[in-house]
Amino acid sequence: MFAGLMAISMLAGAETGSVHSITLKAVALDSGQLAYQMVKHKIKSPSGKVEDITKRYSQEASIPGPAIVMTEGDKAEVTLEHGIKGSNDPVSIHVHGVHYKIDSDGTMKILNHVNDQAAFPGKPYTYKWTAAAGTAGAWPYHDHTFGNPMLGAEDKGLYGTLIINPKSGKVPALIDGKVQNVAIKDIKREFILWMNETTFWGMEVNNIVNRQVPLWTNPTLGARENDLVRFHVIGIGTGFHTFHLHAHRWIQPGTTHIVDTFNIGPIQRESFVVKAGEGVGPGMWHYHCHVLQHMQSGMMGAFKVFESAPN
Ligand SMILES: [Cu+2]
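That's the Copper oxidase sequence above. Prediction below.
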């Protein structure tokens, strides 16, 4: 009887997912731009084990901000601290994609008719997110209050990425010419590229060493031939873009349509997996926005595929 109850409660525990306890801070960079910085990220697993993963993040504030990675079924409590010196303006986090109650909207009372959901100097604010079934994908989070209680300051650099991995642990990809499911645990590197006006702003989530590396503007990305690499491309600002990566192909999510370019408007996003250098080998493979005016303004970088590691 007791063993039976134990088994049931363990099963129930496995269903609930992990609970993330996250503290972020909004700060001003020397450039005058604003940015989010990771202060603390702890994960409590369904079995009750607590792991502090803060060291996986850059210790510095960055644009884009820290990439928060969760799995469908997880919950998060995200506390934002106001660290923008010389300003008393409220700063917030409005998240896309996941579920939350109206008091975690990250907006001011003028919009949500409930309360001001922002951090003030010395007065943090906590948001509660649920990565419910059906929320898998890469999503933006951004400020919605700073400087303008109806707009916020995402244009100044207050934005970052939330990656919700599917509970199945697998994503579809075009590998060796066939659409197949690949295990997320086999993805070596994830490249997050935000397309902001005429510049790419990047962040690498390196799953080999479990570290995040801010890549800043128009970065050169690196991977070894045949490594599984996942790209997350997100638009922000006012521009409409066409993302293109040379010599690689992938499938449009949810379809078997093979593409090497896609459209990205503000806050739209696409994620895709490639096998680095598949069929083409090592090389300095160019990526860029294919809107000519944006290309001419320098909206480009490189995906450098190195020879595969010797065994
Ligand atoms: Cu563009």
